[in-house]
Amino acid sequence: MRAYFIKRILLIIPTLLGITIACFLVMQMVPGGPVEQAVQKMKLAVHGEAGLSVGKIQATMTRDEIENIKKYYGFDKPVLVRYFNWVGKLIRLDFGTSYAYEEPVLHVIISRFPVSLTFGLVGMFFTYLVCIPLGIKKALVHDQPFDHWSSMLIFLGYSIPSFVLAIVLIVLFGGGSFWNIFPISGIVSDNFEDLSLIAKVLDYAYHMFLPILCYTIGGFATLTLLMKNSLMDQLNQDYIRTALAKGLTYKQAIFRHGLRNALIPIATNIGMIIGVILSGSMLIETIFTIDGMGLLGYESIVNRDYPVALGLIVISSLLVLVGRIISDFCLVMVDPRIKFQ
Predict the structure, then answer these.
(1) 40 lies in which domain range?
(2) For residues 217 and 220, what is the distance between their CA atoms, to the nearest angstrom?
(3) Among 160, 247, 293, 319, which is most buried by a count of CB atoms within 10 Å?
(4) Which residues contact 121 (CB under 8 A, 6 or more apart)?
């Protein structure tokens, strides 16, 4: 067992290396990189006062000026040289400097990390809080009216993309065409620092209600049906019939014996969603202007901020790989019968 986990940990290195190579090369081929954007900004700075639009600017820069810009961003070297220079810094936990913020990439990411962490953990907590009891209830009343109606509702929520639901909620409750009940941007009010502790918690919950609702509702169907099907599978096992034959009631047999085994798929799923939780939701954070890692990733791609985009890819990929190992570990913890080779 120990050898298996050591091997999985060691495999993180070549896997992460392959991910970084692919992403680095793709980013170098994307048009409109930082050099082109810097040249355009300099043209606007020189000719902007003349009232010329971007499309009408005809002035050209000298070759030396363009080469100096390429040298500043490190684009004067071949792609492979740039990649290995970046990896060398990455080993020393130096993610480079953001083009947009002109700050160390790690500082930029860390400043957004608490928002996405809170956003993800709260969303996961409410998802599990609702889906596990709902899945158990659906298994106990299988093929009855409650099971049919709840299945219809959760599949309706699953079929609606989260960003579409976000727009609908904004129109309905964010001052669109109907009610102005919830704020549609930010995570706290302007006077947040002047509020008491309880008022701060309530203010944060008030701002995060709609985003967390959009973030969690899409996962209800998968987790609820996973819980239901897992428990129904356990109800048909021989040990449940043996427990009933020994005099236990149906609920006692389920909650004393069946539920623990039914929770195995749920427990192993926790590790796999760590990367998703910490990396945030790009669409939800963008729509509600939540200053987290998801919005940061979107802005870094739009602005061609390669150091930030690559830093987010490395961190997210590492979290997903570690999360899969945690999933295997959780599986062993909840079911000692399983032995990995």
Answers:
(1) 31-91
(2) 5
(3) 293
(4) 277
Residue 283 belongs to a domain: yes
Domain contains 26: no
Whether 252 and 322 map to the same domain: the answer is yes
One domain for residues 172 and 318: yes
Q: What is the mean pLDDT of each run of 10 residues along the chain (341 residues)?
A: 80 89 84 74 59 45 74 80 88 86 88 82 83 89 89 84 83 78 80 84 86 80 86 85 84 82 76 61 81 85 87 86 79 69 62
Token reading at 69: 């810009």
Domain-located, residue 18: no
Amino acid at 339: K
Residue type, 340: F
What is the phi/psi pair of residue 184, to 5°? -115, 5
Residues 159 and 87 placed together within one structural domain of the fold: no
Rounded distance between C-alpha atoms, residue 296 and residue 293, angstroms: 5
Residues 145 and 53 in one domain: no
What is the rounded radius of gyration, in angstroms, for the C-alpha atoms of the chain? 26
Same-domain pairing of 46 and 171: no
H helices present in the chain, as ranges: 2-29, 34-47, 63-73, 79-91, 105-140, 145-159, 162-173, 197-217, 220-235, 238-245, 250-253, 259-262, 264-272, 274-279, 282-287, 293-302, 306-334
Best CA proximity match to 293, nearest among 305, 310, 281: 281
Q: In the Cβ-directed half-sphere of 102, how many Cα atoms lie within 13 Å?
A: 1
Separation CA 174–CA 253 (nearest Å) = 47
